[in-house]
Automatic annotation (TrEMBL):
CDD domains: TRAPPC6A_Trs33. One of its GO terms (cellular component) is cis-Golgi network. Belongs to the TRAPP small subunits family. BET3 subfamily. This is Trafficking protein particle complex subunit. Coiled coil: none annotated. PANTHER family: GEO08327P1, TRAFFICKING PROTEIN PARTICLE COMPLEX SUBUNIT 6B. InterPro entries: NO_sig/Golgi_transp_ligand-bd (IPR024096), TRAPP_component (IPR007194), TRAPPC6/Trs33 (IPR037992). Pfam families: TRAPP (PF04051). One of its GO terms (biological process) is endoplasmic reticulum to Golgi vesicle-mediated transport.
Length: 229
């Protein structure tokens, strides 16, 4: 599945029980879950292919043996993905996370377009973020954010006590690959939040913290805004 296809599909996202008054394409939660798995696996696989090619170029330049025979392949099966991911450097992990964040950013911008009329009535960032916590979060996850905190100086923390996208990832505390998979889902969300805000004139940095999976929180730090903070 291409990134463009993913963005177009998520642009029309509406879970079965959404309160949204518009009539976008209906997507049930099971389908969305399978879709996200495929999207992340495709993105990670493409990134691993690029990483393998880069490694082979380095090996070749050092007259070393090519240890990655599938470097020219565009996809890896799940077992191959796990083997490669277990040996990734921190820099290589960051490259994958950045790509997922970028996809999320583009998806977030498209999601924001659906709510342009509602969002434009807000005169400050806190109004927009409250709207995200209530209406947009409900549309995406069939629930509202559990907690919202702010220092009233441009920093907001939103907390989901049971984040739906990572509830089925087990052994988070003890399994490094489970931690990476959880991180991949959450980087999609940080990008989505940035994209939603950027579309209405709010530039931000977004990070996540996992207190006790599936409990997690997202910190939004506004760096520039056409609205008040």
């Amino acid at each position: 599945m291409s990134v463009a296809s993913a963005i177009n599909l998520l642009r029309n996202l509406k879970l079965d029980n959404s309160k949204t008054q518009q009539e976008p394409v209906q997507i049930n939660e099971t389908f969305l879950e399978l879709f996200l798995i495929e999207l992340i696996n495709s993105t990670v696989s493409a990134s691993l292919s690029e990483i393998s090619k880069t490694r082979n170029l380095v090996l070749s330049s050092n007259n070393s043996q090519d240890l990655s025979p599938k470097a020219n392949s565009e996809t890896f099966n799940p077992v191959e993905q796990e083997l490669i991911q277990s040996g990734l450097t921190e820099h290589e992990k960051l490259l994958i996370e950045k790509k997922l964040d970028e996809i999320g950013f583009r998806v977030g911008q498209k999601i924001s377009e659906r709510y342009t009329a509602e969002i434009q009535r807000f005169v400050d960032a806190i109004g927009v973020i409250k709207f995200i916590c209530k209406e947009i979060w409900y549309s995406l996850f069939n629930k509202q954010i559990d907690n919202l905190k702010t220092n009233h100086k441009g920093i907001y923390i939103i907390q989901d006590l049971r984040f739906k996208w990572i509830t089925k990832i087990s052994n988070y505390q003890t399994n490094s690959l489970a931690k990476e998979k959880t991180s991949q889902y959450l980087h999609l969300v940080t990008g989505m939040l940035r994209g939603i805000l950027e579309r209405v004139g709010i530039t931000s940095t977004v990070t996540f913290d996992i207190e006790d999976s599936p409990q997690c929180s997202f910190q939004i730090k506004i760096t520039k805004s056409r609205l008040g903070v």
